[in-house]
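User: Here's a chain of 125 residues. Predict its fold as tokens.
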Amino acid sequence: MNKNLLKLAAVIGLILVGLALSGCGESRSRFAGAYRSVNPIAEKNYIDLDLEENGKGTWTLAEKTTEFTWVVNHHKIWIYLKTGAIIVFTPSEGGKELSADMTGEWHPGCSPNSCVVFKRVSAGG
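Assistant: Prediction complete.
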């Protein structure tokens, strides 16, 4: 029984080390800040996106806010929603602009008419 317990502890230890190493990702600091969609959604409301350096963030549309976590991997910003959804943003202009493919399918870039572009806003709004 002790051998089985040691094996289990070793497996759990390896899993924890793997998770810790995979969670490192790239630095978030250059992308942290406030962004706003360039165009309104349904010609009514803009999306406000706030990326905090600690990996937390918010998405606000029509006074409804959704919280998420985010990481930077392979030069893209990966947003993880509590529902399990993942949105991948592609930064450009040194992080001053982000584009998100909103089709719900994996694409290497944004599809026409399905891309939401965000620009960084200054600290005052």
